[in-house]
């Protein structure tokens, strides 16, 4: 989701231009070669980690039937979103970030900006849906199996994709977000920026971040409160449990561990995206004074959330950890079996 500052200069004399043969070309961003190389290395590494990590999640859930569950179908869809962001958005954003130029034309700029907003919004809404799923599993366990089914989860996922598509493409293609900013958004050749006026800066941020984020925080606070009560209750009964109760206790422990893992995912999401959305809301009220490089850095910090999710699963979620090991072992030619019990 991009929103680059308008704090640019119109003086191109003595500067390298994005399109030297065109009148009214944007100036290229001048950087030392070592800085350009460092930026490309960092961004390419982030893109590769995002794509490969989320592909591991996609392959794991698709390949191992033991991972088929409503929760994991949400995570599967989330991984598809994050992988798509790494393939379809981040490479083009990388070139624009380093050179300060958009070389692919006005129409593809619209498509890129729409996909950027759509995929980032969809990723955030998926994390919100995961928190709802965990709330039902931990706080309403008796109703969970009847209320949260694969069919219902699939419907919710489709709704999220549709809402994000209509909202994002609708905003970008109609330019409703830049109404009243015509004097500021007079683009030069090689520019591809997405700016929001005061109204739409608030509306878009509320819909795509602050409302889902608030829901997630409230639900996880409730989840941890219930999890602590369960933990105290089980400690009191530890000396008198039966074998059947031990089995139920292990199940509850796995549920709490999954909830904590997904809370870490939420924390990473807040850390990565909160600075960007705060700046998006504030920037129109300070006449877009935020430097372009600062805004660009915040965008990439937000992208980094899509890199973090599979890393968190690998280190904190035992089922995925075992599945990743099997897939990587097969990829490098080691003999293994996919019949290993992932739930052990």
Automatic annotation (TrEMBL):
Cellular localisation: Cell membrane
Keywords on record: Cell membrane, Disulfide bond, G-protein coupled receptor, Glycoprotein, Membrane, Receptor, Transducer, Transmembrane, Transmembrane helix
TM helices/strands, residue ranges: 37-61, 73-95, 115-132, 153-173, 200-224, 262-282, 294-316
Name this protein carries in UniProt: Trace amine-associated receptor 4-like
Protein family per UniProt: Belongs to the G-protein coupled receptor 1 family.
Pfam families in UniProt: 7tm_1
Topological category with respect to the lipid bilayer: Multi-pass membrane protein
